[in-house]
Amino acid sequence: MNLEILGIDCHAEQAGEGEDILLLHGWGCEIALMKPIFDALSKRCRVTALDFPGHGQSAFPPESGYSLSDYAAFTLELIKRLGIAPCGIVAHSFGGRVALKIAAERPETLKKLLITGGAGLRPRRKPGFYLKRAVYSCLRALSRFFPGGEAFRDALRARFGSADYNALRPEMRATFNKVIAEDLRPLLPRVAAETLLVWGENDGETPLYMGKIMEEEIPGAALVVLEGGSHFAYLEQAPRFARIAEAFFFAE
Fold first, then answer.
1. Residue 40 maps to which CATH number?
2. 144, 168, 191, 249: which has the fewest Cβ within 10 Å?
3. Based on the domain organization, do 50 and 166 belong to the same domain?
4. For residues 243 and 247, what is the distance between their CA atoms, to the nearest angstrom?
5. What is the distance between the alpha carbons of residues 107 and 128, in angstroms, rounded to a whole number?
6. For the chain, how long is the longest CA-to-CA vector?
7. In the 3-class helix/strand/coil scheme, how is 9-59 assigned residue by residue?
8. Collapsing DSSP states into helix, strand and coil, what is residue 198?
């Protein structure tokens, strides 16, 4: 289905009947990456999946970019428009950021929360990372005081930014910067929904220690580790993940 949410054309899919579960994909992904979970859960309930703004078949956010609060507001409006509250949420990576924001600030919106490879915590960095960032920030600030500054800033971004970051459209670079700037750790104690964390043992994007922190700081949360799994362990071990999700959401 296609609908307009907060002025942005959005693509969503829905299947099944019964209790509602919403699937939230990761950064740079789309509904298709949630398909195995969508198909499995839709046999037991009504499942809704959306393409976030700037992803899949949904339109891009405004030129100024979207913040995490904007994505949460967008998702809440979709939930309201489709009449699926309160719902369960299954969220991967960036979707976990949005889910945590909603769980902490709008607890009446959801019943249970399942996060896999969830983002939102500040990563542990080596000293070289902070030195590189300081050099970049200094040069970028100085560039504003000499002619051709914009071209120089583009060159800096190409030199210091990753290939993936540089390939983004301007509004998505602005969005990315806003999203990663927010540390969600202070929100964890405010998550009241029953929460299950499912993590790949070898997750290189959101390492397992992040899942352990969430388990410790979200009241009553439990952590399941998928042995040998990467950041996309939910796809690599889709049948097992589906069984875990079904047991969590539909336990008698």
1. 3.40.50.1820
2. 144
3. no
4. 6
5. 39
6. 68
7. EEEEEEECCCCEEEEECCCCCCHHHHHHHHHHHCCCCEEEEECCCCCCCCC
8. strand
Segment 99-120 shows an average pLDDT of 97
Instruction: Indicate if 12 and 64 belong to the same structural domain.
Output: yes
**What is the signed CA dihedral for 182, 186, 192, 195, rounded to 10 degrees?**
70
Instruction: Note if the pTM is more than 0.90.
Output: no
pLDDT tens for each residue of 113-124 = 999 999 999 987
In this predicted model, what pLDDT tens digit does every residue of 32-60 receive, in sequence order? 999 999 999 999 999 999 999 999 999 99
| Sequence letter at residue 118 | G
Residues 39 and 108 in one domain: yes
Could you tell me if 20 and 87 are in contact, meaning their C-beta atoms sit under 8 angstroms apart? yes
pLDDT at position 124:
75
Structural domain span for residue 20? 2-122+183-250
DSSP category for residue 174 = H
Cα angle 179-109-44, degrees, rounded to a multiple of 5: 105
